[in-house]
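Can't paste images in this forum, so I'm doing it all in text. The chain is below; anyone willing to post the predicted C-alpha cells underneath?
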Amino acid sequence: MSAFDDVKIGEILEPVGPEEESHREERVRRRFWHTARRAARHIPFMDEVVAAYFCALDERTPPRVRGVLLAALAYFVLPLDWIPDFVIGFGFTDDLAVLTAAITAIRSHITPAHRQAAKSFFEDSN
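Text version of the structure:
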C-alpha cells in the first residue's frame, strides 16, 4: 500500500453527516452491480464485497457499521479515484485496500443472511 497508505484509507472511511451518508447510499445502490461485475475478476474476495453490500443496506446493521461500509463501497463505485479503475493491472489496487480495511473492521457484522444473499447472487449470475 505504499502510494495508498493508512492515512488515506482513514480519510475515506471517516464518519460523515446524514446528508453525505444518504448520498453515499444512493450512489452505491445506483452503481454497485455494474462496478461489481466489472471488478469481479480483479478482486479475489468479491463474495465478501457483495455480502458487505447487503450488510450496508440492511436496516438492522448498526449505523456506524453501515457508515464504514457505505464509505468503502462508495469509493469502490467511483469511476475515477486515487488510481482510476481503467488503469489495467492497478486500477482496483486502491479499491482493494479500502474494501479490505472496511471489511476487516466490521466482519463480525456480516451475518449468515448477508453471506447467503451474496451466494445466491453468484449462483443466479452463473
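Residues 6-125 form one domain. The chain has one domain: 6-125.
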